[in-house]
Amino acid sequence: MPESLLAAEPAPLAFHPARAALVIIDMQRDFLEPGGFGETLGNDVSLLQAAVGPCQAALAAARAAGLLVIHTREGHRPDMADAPPAKVERGAPTARIGCAGPMGRILIRGEPGHDIIAELYPAPGEVVLDKPGKGAFYQTDLEIILKNRGIDTLLVAGVTTEVCVHTTIREGNDRGYRCVALADCCASYFPEFHRIGLEMIKAQGGIFGWVSGSSALTAALANKAEAA
């Protein structure tokens, strides 16, 4: 099985595409569009749009190469039994998790705002993982999905860089996965947090993993296809 070489920091990473998964974190309407949870917290949701185009490029390359693709959605049960009070109490009292918003109840599974944006909508057969917390491993079956497919490398995209992306990479690192943040495929409401979040991942020789980008991934997968 030929390896692909991914240009990355702090060093290039050789990986087997058959053992890699593209994990797209929480590219949901509630975070990226006006009226969702992100905006109710006072954020400028337009800042997250920068990640959409690069995510589309990474997703197209992953699909063409046959990588496992996983989409995550943060949100809670309609009865909110899985929503901790400390989390629900954030933000304005009339615009919290579970409150009615322009796209249905905010951050509640099954509501329009909870779903993934049209530009990155999952294809049939791609994994859609609903999670109640920040990390994609917490209270989900992600780990068994990865083990069943023999995955050892996670190519991580999505929002926000310093919260759900970072948490997932930290969780993956502790479980022995090689984690790569695709920098331009990630975004934050706070550009400085995005920059520092990426610096933290690749610091100290890659303490949490690697940092790369959509163009590098596309090139690595294209080279693999040519070699095959």
UniProtKB/TrEMBL annotation:
It comes from Ancylobacter tetraedralis. GO terms for molecular function: hydrolase activity. The keyword Acetylation does not apply. SUPFAM superfamilies: Isochorismatase-like hydrolases (SSF52499). This is Nicotinamidase-related amidase. The keyword Metal-binding does not apply. Pfam families: Isochorismatase. Gene3D superfamilies: Isochorismatase-like. InterPro entries: Isochorismatase-like_dom, Isochorismatase-like_hydrls, Isochorismatase-like_sf. Residues 20-206 form the Isochorismatase-like domain. It comes from the Bacteria. Keywords: Hydrolase.
